[in-house]
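for the recovery benchmark. tokens below, seq after
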């Protein structure tokens, strides 16, 4: 086990390659500690250097529609009608609080995603 801090993308690549080699190691095995430590180091590096932007609310809706096999007409009732659904999905109208609430309750889309908070 040759562990070192991850300071750049080269170090990150090496750590990820090693994690890939160790990914199937069973808990209790000698290499399992190395896998846990490398995973923690990678997570810390990525949180600092590779932040993930909050999801776009319209993309969150489209993703959930795709997951459930829904069409625009299927979600119109949650957005106030077909015209509103069209306007929201084409980004011509922002989501209202009522729309967010309906999508969250009925389609189980996380409210943070609908608010763009990630």
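predicted aa per position
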């Amino acid at each position: 086990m040759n562990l070192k801090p991850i300071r750049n993308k080269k170090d990150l690549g090496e750590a990820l390659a090693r994690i890939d080699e160790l990914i199937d190691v069973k808990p209790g095995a000698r290499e399992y500690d190395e896998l846990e430590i490398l995973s923690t180091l990678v997570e810390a590096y990525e949180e600092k250097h590779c932040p993930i932007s909050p999801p776009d609310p319209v993309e969150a809706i489209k993703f959930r529609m795709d997951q459930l096999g829904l069409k625009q007409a299927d979600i119109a009732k949650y957005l106030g009608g077909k015209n509103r659904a069209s306007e929201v999905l084409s980004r011509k109208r922002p989501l209202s609080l009522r729309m967010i609430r309906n999508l969250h309750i009925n389609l189980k889309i996380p409210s943070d995603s609908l608010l763009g908070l990630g």
